[in-house]
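Could you show me some protein's one-letter sequence and the numbers that encode its backbone in two labelled lines?

___
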Amino acid sequence: MMVRHQARRGAGAAPVTGVAGRRATAASPVAGVARRRGTPAVLVTAVAVGLALVACLAGAASAASLIPMDLTQTDHLKSYGVAYWSLEKGYRVEWLLNYRGGSFLVLDGGGDLTAECRYRGVTWEDVGGGDLTSIYQTIEEENMEVVLLEKAPAVALYAPDNVQPWDDAVMLALEYAEIPYEVVWDKEVLAGELETYDWLHLHHEDFTGQFGKFYASFQNADWYKEQKAQYEELAREQGFPSVSEHKKASARTIKEYVRRGGFLFVMCSASDSYDVALSATGVDIVDVPFDGTPPESGFRKKIDDSQCLAFEGFGLISNPLVYEFSDIDMTDVAKLRPEEIDYFTLFEFAAKYDPVPTMLTQCHVNVVKGFMGQTTSYRRSLVKKHVTVLADYPGTDEVKYIHGNLGRGTFTFLGGHDPEDYRHMVGDPPTILSLHKGSPGYRLILNNILFPAAKKKERKT
């Protein structure tokens, strides 16, 4: 069942006179902008256009509004929501890569934009024509770039109907930033409904049909039994002999969605189990507790990692009592690292030549606090050569954040469950993002949500 989630106002905010009404739905294109997919590898930058606009705007008292994303910003996370809101309103939004932490420039928001910032508690600066000239010149001369954001992307989260917000950090981020989204599940995926969305997120889901490998710890828990029965019923309803085959079919459908131009963002155990599931097409890799039969003989030699998005050469872990899908994950290594020294490093890219990875790593810091998950990080030696590493633990085989292309679309994997909940456990209370307004880890999530908005050059047919 698809559920529409409209952005909600944060608690404690006082309304401001003159604030515009509710935003339009993200499933509809911004007025006058055709919805289209295409490779994000070549983006249209806006420096030249911006400089041309300066001449027209120089006489205005305030030509634009800058939403700074450096340490002067009071709420980095809600700033992404303001940028999204501006796109829905049809305003011209530019993402200033590497400029003051990856700031946003809204060129025609006027009083509505400043009222919205004030309402959400977001810092903004009025920018005159002369200041605009200086900003664009600085960007032209340094490792910075301007990318025009074209439209508010339609966002979908892959999750069951009863998912709780604290089970998915992306859901928390969307709710806090007030960015609308819809929830889809296997029925919608297999019915072809992903084509209505620009961006899809997978989080703590097991695409191998092993029920999250929770068997050893939770096989007698009521929630585990209920979830297992629910998933088995759904598989039967859709004509699949097992949950494993049902989930693998969804994984393959999602892969085709990416190939045709979708943007896929994956965190936690989904990033490990997803590629494992793709590699096991036509191969039974799950044990008796999950589908009533043992894995087929020689299954480890039958998997095909050429079908995977990000990983190759990995080994499967089929033991139902082991809380791992494969040796891709490096949680065991991460556990040996004291929490107080657990930090990973973002790579720095040439903004003018590599705008895509630059967008995905925009942050006000370059060293980010680590966080655990069922899949915490990835073994570097198993990452495919064409995949770009965005963040790692320098000098180790441990990679935290990766990105790659497939056909006309892209995929991005981020290890860990919740950037502000170091060791997230089943039943833990939700993270309260109003206490983490400047979270660098959550900024990485929100970079991915705005990434599909970047304007792309039209492809000639």
Summary: DSSP finds 15 helices and 16 strands in the chain. The longest strand covers residues 398-406. The chain has two domains: 3-149, 185-335+372-430. The mean pLDDT is 86.
